[in-house]
Amino acid sequence: MSDPDKAQFQSRAHVQYAGDVEVAPRGSRQRRSSRASHDSVSVRSLSRGRVQVDPSVVLPIQYRTLSFNVTEAQSKAPDTESKSDVGVSAEFASLDWHHIPVAEVYTRLSASPSHGLSKEQSARKLQEYGPNVPSKPRSRLWLKILGYLFGGFGTVLFIASVLVFIAWKPLGQPPAIANLALAIVLGIVWIVQAAFAFYQDWSSSRVMSSIKTMLPDECFVLRDGAKQQISGKHIVPGDMLFLSMGDKLPADVRFVEVSSDARFDRSILTGESEPLRGAVNSTEKNFLETPCIGMAGSHCVAGSAMGIVISTGDRSVFGRLAKLTSVPNTALTTLEREIYYFVALIVLIMLTMVVVVCICWGAWLRHSHPDWITVPMLIVDCVSVAVAFIPEGLPIAVTASLTIIAGIMRKNKILCKSLKTVETLGSVSTICSDKTGTLTKNQMTVTDVLVDRQSLTANAATGLTSLEQPPNTAPVPALHLLATLSALCNAADFDPTTMHLPFSLRKIIGDATDTAILRLAESLSPVSALRDAWRRVFRIAFNSRNKFMVQVVQHASDGVYLTIKGAPDILLRRCSHYVDASGSSLPLTDSQRAHVETVKDGWSAQGKRVILLARKQLPSSVLSSDVQSQDFEDAMLDAATAGLELVGIVGIFDPPRDEIPEVVRILHTAGIKVHMVTGDFKLTAQAIALECGIITSNLVDDASALSLSSLAGGSPPRDAMVVSGADLEQLDQAQWDALCAYRAIVFARTSPEQKLRIVKELQARGEVVGMTGDGVNDAPSLKAANVGIAMGSGSDIAIEAADMVLLDSFAAIVEAVKYGRVVFDNLKKTICYLLPAGSFSEFWPVMTNVVFGLPQVLSSFLMIIICCFTDCAAATAIAFEKPEADVLLLPPRNTRKDHLVDWQLILQAYGFTGMLETIASFSMAYWYAARKGIPFSVLWFGFGKIPAGMDSETYTAILNEASSIYFINLVVMQWFNLLAVRTRRLSLLHHPPLFRAATRNMYLFPAMAFALLIAVFFLYVPKFQSVLGTTSVPVAHYFLPMAFGMGILLLDEARKWAVRTWPKGFLARIAW
Questions:
Q1: Tens of pLDDT along 728-758?
Q2: H or E stretch including 289?
Q3: Which residue intervals make up region (Disordered) (predicted)?
């Protein structure tokens, strides 16, 4: 590379590319306010029709999950890796671009550091690797359309419609208009079902159109020994790329030269606004976290660098994430699995009955009674069987139920991003809750301080520093030093617009911990004066891995100090001296160290977060090196490992939310385990868990109880466990089995990676997990959980990853669980309502027609009317049912055993209600026919025999009237079935449909009236009578079904009473 090129490389702003509008550092892009965040939640949750999404909110979820998986894959021994590790995570875990020397990078890519690639090389590589653009995802439009049309019962309905059309023409001789009408109605039902399936779905490939704008159009590379400006899509592996402030990286690069102040903003990938320092070499094992790799899509926000391209297009991290993000999630929710299970069951029964009908016709009727059922009639009979078994109103009822419940949750300030997730929450068996801000108020206050051996309340410390002549024994100098460190080693700042207010009322910009410590500092000594006296030189921000913050400061006369603030269990062992009451430095003896440990444990046991503040004097010469370099950061981290001087510790209290103990009690009563997952110290977490009611006693197990000797008994010695993140790393699968058996677990000092591991281990043991979180690093665990739950005040990335958002308080989780269970209960009730008339009572007229030679006493067209009209409105009305009083007194359903449709429900729908409705309807129809001159003895194995003295027209008219009576009998009896299925355990008197607001359902009686109007419409309109063979019905046959229906209702009330009275009796065991 020529000298002019090198000089230009060192400049800061020599590269520009077309259309670049994001040249400002990340810091200039302020995070939206909490209010704005709330608004964005509403839009994101409620607007399903948007075409684009912000990649900076979507990509970090995949990136963080991938990074955690890479770390986990690398931590496994080679002989323990499982086949499941093969995939994107394993590929990244095996990459070594960040480990190998720069010279080897050049060798692998056949590139020259002084000449770059030749024209021939770049052309050949462009042909080999393709353009540097993320490829479009495969279009799944036709697959989606086919899924809408032929998913569920769609295939059966389509085939049925086609077959009936064929039965009409050309097989119909002459064509029967009723068959044409039936075929048209079946076709309409098929299209409507597809429309409802489309309504519930939305595409996840919407991300790709936004991602395409995230890569630069133009960039500078070294080719043939000269710097050239080329299109970003023509970048190939081996290209030498020039970068300076404001540039956007077009591909993944390994840095070969970086300026000391080079910083790269990876927020589009990581979600974190803090820029990452660039480096030529790194000891970081994880390819996704190393500073010597530049990622496509990230920005150079300071300094300059040169790198060699190692991956382009779909092979880059950005391209892989884009592909992962645009792939639709094919995992089924618990509700989808249950509906597919039900569809499979119904289709299996239906096909079995169709085969029986065909066998009867082929082996018997075709020979013995050839004129009874012709081929067109056989087709219609088979279709009638299909129509009888398919509850056509179910898809509409499911969609209506989910939409209604989602609306109710929205009123409770719970935003559901997916309708199907609502029911999943109802089956949640374990909730893993974050502590700060979720269980607690996130209003931290310093309550206690310890300097020297003197433990003081924060108010007492403030009082001592405000006295003009404090007592000689008062540790005022030490308190002033504590105030200095609290002010300097602090990332929070007072809002300038509130500086005129008392310090206790001023607004502070910063996290809750820094806010509490800054307010303490101001109470002891003016923060502005302290900060004016010291120059803050360099900062290492707090992170969940180090658990401390470092601030290097310089004073005009006192020199240079490293100040540090963080977890005592990490920092105390690094201290060799401490500050006594007079401000002097003394060796930290074992006695003094034990005293600090005792105080720390005491405060932690009270639920307080304990923070240690220390310092270390550095030689002034340390500032002669570049403070922006990686070497300086490494030197400061190394200096912080030993020789620290303990200044003091502070105890910070974050009170639990007032409603949390009651919330936890209700969740426990509902059979849901509640675990706490926090980064706090074990004793602090245990104390807060005790105060919140998660654990009920201080007698809890620790990790030692998971040893093989402790597991010999087979069950946990106690019902609660407190375990740290470090302990989790040592557990084998047998110990995880034992840990997950505990009723309450407090996971302390956990990292985001461990949070994801906790979710996966619980799920592997059959738990349905709800996980709460609000931070960027929580996104992978929120995404992995069965139900990810974010707080409205959380980060945008956590909200995007979550399935639902609690806008107000964690207390709303009770309503969410309640209505999640209501969804499942109401769908069970809907199916139990639809099956007796819409399946069982429709099937037997067809079967008796084929097997016993009886006329089909209910026409196929009237079967469709029952399924899609008279029953549909009532089935939708069930979706408005309020929760039964005991819905939160029952354990969560076992998703492996408790299905939406089980043998108990089939027994209730077919063996009880269906049987009674069928017998009553048959009786009314044939009783009417007998009174009109067609005795049942003539019809039984009559195969169309007409009584003597009666013409065929009269015979047909009487049977049409009998068919209409059968139809109206079912419609009216279903009114009472509707009242019966409203509750599964409670009496109708305890859960009345009127008068009581908590149980009222005002849609039931309009639904009954609608069913009657539809029945009258199709029975009494003359055109329908002539085409479809319907007739008017005698008045008596409207009232007789009421008596039968009342009998069903009273019998079911007696059954429920027996279930409540003998909860372990026979009827309770077979109850649905």
A1: 988 888 899 989 999 999 999 888 888 989 9
A2: none
A3: 1-47
Find the Cα–Cα–Cα–Cα dihedral 892, 893, 894, 897, rounded to 10°. Answer: 170
Find the catalytic residue in 239, 381, 434, 680.
434
Quick one: pLDDT at residue 941?
92
> Which phi and psi angles does 627 have, rounded to 5°?
-70, -10
Residues facing residue 393 across a β-bridge: none
Whether the pLDDT of residue 51 is over 70: the answer is no
Domain that holds residue 427: 414-439+657-808
Cα separation, 669 vs 667, whole angstroms = 5
What's the whole-number mean pLDDT along residues 609-623? Answer: 94
Question: Nearest to residue 435, comparing CAs of 600, 762, 681, 753?
Answer: 681
**Which CATH number is 426's domain given?**
3.40.50.1000
Q: How many domains does the chain have?
A: 4
Tell how many helices (H) and how many strands (E) occur in the chain: 43, 28
Exposure string of 723-752, with b = 16+ CB inside 10 Å and e = fewer, is: bbbebbeebeeebbebbbebbbbbbbbbbb
Taking a C-beta distance cutoff of 8 angstroms, is the pair 673, 743 a contact? Answer: yes
Q: Which of 230-239, 255-264, 592-601 has the lowest average pLDDT?
A: 255-264
* CA–CA distance, 324 with 137 (Å, rounded to integer): 10
| pTM of the entire predicted model | 0.78
The band of 897, judged by pLDDT with boundaries at 50, 70 and 90, is confident
The answer to whether 434 is a known catalytic residue is: yes
Asked whether residue 472 falls in the same domain as residue 612, the answer is: yes
Q: Which residues, at least 6 apart from 930, have a Cβ–Cβ distance to it below 8 Å?
A: 936
Residue range 696-709, pLDDT digits in tens: 887 888 888 887 54
Q: What percent of the chain has pLDDT over 90?
A: 44
Residue 336, domain member (yes or no)? no
* b/e per residue 658-693 (b: at least 16 CB within 10 A): eebeebbebbbebebbbbbbbbbbbbbbbbbbbbbb
Three-state secondary structure string covering 51-91: CCCCHHHHHHHHHHHHHHHHHHHHHCCHHHCCHHHCCHHHH
Token pair 């958002």: residue: 805
**Final residue in a domain of this structure, among 612, 634, 653:** 653
Q: What is the CATH number of the domain that holds 532?
A: 3.40.1110.10
Tokens 């444990």 locate to 601
Peptide bond into 391 cis (omega under 30): no
What number is the average pLDDT over the span 237-252?
90
How many C-beta atoms lie closer than 10 Å to residue 817's C-beta? 24
DSSP string, 460-486: HHHHHHH-SS--TT--HHHHHHHHHHH
What is the spatial distance between Cα 244 and Cα 261, in angstroms, rounded to a whole number? Answer: 11
